[in-house]
Design brief:
The chain is an alpha/beta fold and 373 residues long. The protein contains 11 helices and 10 strands. It has a 6-stranded mixed sheet with strand order 6-7-8-3-9-10, with helices on both faces. Strand 4 and strand 5 form a beta hairpin. Helix 3 packs across helix 4 and helix 4 crosses helix 5. Bound molecules: adenosine-5'-diphosphate (ADP) and magnesium ion.
C-alpha cells in the first residue's frame, strides 16, 4: 500500500540527506508508528507519501502508483485517497466545524447531497455531533484535532497519515485521540503515525519504524518506542500538564521517603554501635573501636528492614500519565511505568459499521484501488 524503495531525500542547500536509503513497505490495514528524534526525517517521509515532495533517489509507491510517474495534474485526485492530520490541526479559522469538514468535499466537487450526508457522519465518527456550528476557537485542542480527523476521513481515504497528532495536546486528550486513531484503523484504514510519544508506542505494541538521522534503524512488528536515553531532554520540558506534575511529585515523594529510610537505617546502626560500646565498657573488656564488624552497615541484612520498605518503594498512590518519561535519576524505572490512561483497543461496534462503510473505512474492498481508478 505504501512502499519506500531505497529512498534518499536531500534538501537543497543542506549537506546531509534528510533521508538516506529508506526501505519499507506498509500493508493495507496496518497501524505503523514512525518514530525518531526531531529532525530524524519523519515528516519528510510523510511529505513524500503525500507527493508534496519527491525523492532525490529511490522510489515511493503509494496505492499501487509509482509517484515518480504521477502527473502533477493527477496529484489532487491521488491525495483524495490519503487523509492527513498534523500537530497544529490546520483548521480554517473563519469557518465552522461543519464548513471545515465540508470544504474538502466542496473543493473536489462532491454533490450537495453527498456532503450533507458525509459531513455529519464524519463528525459523529469522531464524537463531535452537536458541535457542527462551533468555530475552531470555541473548541478545545482535542476537539480541534477531532475536526481535523473528521476532515481527513470525510473523503473515505484508504490511508491516514498523522504527523505528531498529539503533539499539542495534554496527556488525557492525547489518549482519546490515540483511541480514535486505533478505532479508525480497526475500521480498515491504514494508519501511519509519526510521533515522539514513547508511552503510546510502548502501550499499543504495533509496528514501529525508527529513523535516526534519516536512516532506518529499526522495523519491528510489535515494537515499543525503544531507547529514549539518547534523546536529550530537560525535566521541565517533559513535565506537561497537571497529571504530569502530579506524577513528578509522586516520584519525588518516593525519593524523599527512600532518603528518610536511609537516615533511619544510619541512626539504627549508630544506636547499635553505641549499645555495643557501652556493653563492652561495662564488661571491662578492651576498648571497642568502630571496627566494621561491630557496626552493621546500613545495607546489612542483620539490620531489620522496616516492614514498610516495599510499600514505600512501590508507588501505590499516583501513577503518572502515558507521556511522562521517567526522570533518568529515578530508580527503579517501574516507579513511572504504569499509566493512568491505559489505551484500550477498540471493539468494533456493529452500529458504527454503517458509518465506517460510508466513510470508506470498512475493509470490504480487497482490491488496491489506484488513485485514478
Ligand atoms: P522530523 O519530522 O523527524 O523532525 P524532518 O523530516 O522534518 O524530521 O527533517 C529531517 C531533516 O531535514 C532535518 O535535518 C531538517 O532540518 C531537514 N529539512 C526538513 N525540511 C527541510 C526543507 N524544506 N529544507 C531544508 N531542510 C529540511
Ligand atoms: Mg516532523
Amino acid at each position: 500500500m505504501i512502499r519506500f524503495e531505497n529512498v534518499t531525500k536531500r534538501y537543497r542547500g543542506t549537506s546531509k540527506p534528510a533521508l538516506s536509503g529508506v526501505d519499507f513497505e506498509v500493508q493495507r490495514g496496518e497501524f505503523v508508528f514512525l518514530v525518531g528524534a526531531s529532525g530524524s526525517g519523519k515528516s519528510s517521509c510523510l511529505r513524500l507519501i503525500l507527493r508534496e515532495d519527491v525523492p532525490t533517489a529511490g522510489r515511493v509507491a503509494v496505492l499501487g502508483r509509482d509517484l515518480r510517474s504521477l502527473a502533477n495534474r493527477k496529484v489532487p485526485y491521488f491525495r483524495r485517497h490519503i487523509g492527513s492530520v498534523f500537530q497544529d490541526f490546520r483548521l480554517l479559522p473563519s469557518k465552522t466545524v461543519y464548513q471545515n469538514v465540508a470544504f474538502t468535499l466542496q473543493v473536489t466537487g462532491s454533490s450537495r447531497g453527498f456532503i450533507q450526508q458525509a459531513v455529519p457522519e464524519a463528525l459523529a465518527l469522531v464524537g463531535l455531533d452537536g458541535k457542527q456550528k462551533r468555530m475552531p476557537h470555541e473548541l478545545s485542542g482535542g476537539e480541534q484535532q477531532r475536526v481535523a480527523i473528521a476532515r481527513a476521513l470525510v473523503n473515505r481515504p484508504q490511508v491516514l497519515l498523522a504527523d505528531e497528532p498529539t503533539g499539542n495536546l495534554d496527556p488525557a486528550t492525547s489518549v482519546d485521540i490515540m483511541q480514535l486513531l486505533a478505532r479508525i484503523n480497526a475500521g480498515g484504514t491504514t494508519v501511519l503515525m509519526a510521533t515522539h510519544e514513547a508511552g503510546f508506542v510502548d502501550q499499543m505494541q504495533r509496528r514501529v519504524i525508527e529513523l535516526r538521522d534519516g536512516e532506518m534503524v529499526r522495523d519491528e512488528v510489535h515494537g515499543g518506542y525503544g531507547d529514549t536515553s539518547n534523546i536529550p531532554r530537560l525535566v521541565p520540558e517533559q513535565v506537561r500538564g497537571a497529571a504530569a506534575a502530579a506524577a513528578l511529585t509522586a516520584v519525588q515523594e518516593v525519593q524523599r521517603q527512600t532518603a528518610d529510610l536511609s537516615s533511619v537505617r544510619a541512626a539504627l546502626a549508630e544506636e547499635l554501635s553505641m549499645q555495643r560500646k557501652a556493653a563492652a565498657a561495662e564488661s571491662g573488656s578492651a576498648a571497642v573501636t568502630d571496627a566494621p564488624q561491630t557496626v552493621e552497615p546500613p545495607e546489612s541484612p542483620s539490620v531489620p528492614e522496616p516492614e514498610t520498605v516495599a510499600d514505600v518503594v512501590e508507588p501505590p498512590v499516583v501513577e503518572p500519565p502515558a507521556v511522562v518519561e521517567p526522570p533518568t535519576a529515578v530508580e527503579p524505572p517501574a516507579v513511572v511505568r504504569p499509566r493512568t490512561h491505559p489505551i484500550t483497543l477498540p471493539t468494533v461496534d456493529v452500529a458504527e459499521l454503517g458509518v465506517a462503510d460510508r466513510l470508506g473505512l470498512s475493509d470490504e474492498d480487497d482490491e488496491e484501488v489506484g488513485p485514478t481508478s
